[in-house]
Design goal:
The protein is mainly alpha-helical. The protein has helices at about 20-45, 50-60, 60-70, 75-85, 90-95.
Length: about 110
């Protein structure tokens, strides 16, 4: 008999194996959120700002800032950029490095006012 018309031939395709288990990725994601949250808190405290003042300057809610600082949430690039712009800091200060938070920058900071 010939090929059946209208059907595609089947190929043996090896299933993709994830590079990391889902639990490991979640732990890594949570750890990253904690590093970013600590970076936000550290920069905010260096400015002498409250969470409410930072939220106002960045156009965000104080509750959202609190959740970011606790590592419950991770900011989008857009939100991280707004936070950095409000505090006149580089994005790298929030992202941190594998060994901890990035070094302090020499950018002049705005005074609470």
């Amino acid at each position: 008999m010939g090929q059946e018309s209208g059907k595609r031939p089947k190929f043996d395709v090896e299933p993709k194996t994830p590079s990391k288990a889902p639990e490991a990725r979640e732990d890594e994601h949570h750890a990253f959120n904690n590093v970013v949250g600590e970076g936000i808190r550290k920069a905010r405290q260096e400015h002498g700002w409250t969470q409410a003042f930072l939220a106002d300057q960045a156009g965000l809610s104080p509750n959202y800032i609190a959740r970011l600082e606790r590592g419950e949430l991770g900011p989008s690039l857009f939100v991280a950029s707004r936070i950095c712009e409000a505090m006149s800091i580089a994005l790298e200060e929030l992202v941190g490095s594998p060994g901890g938070l990035m070094r302090k920058t020499t950018i002049k900071r705005r005074v609470l006012g």
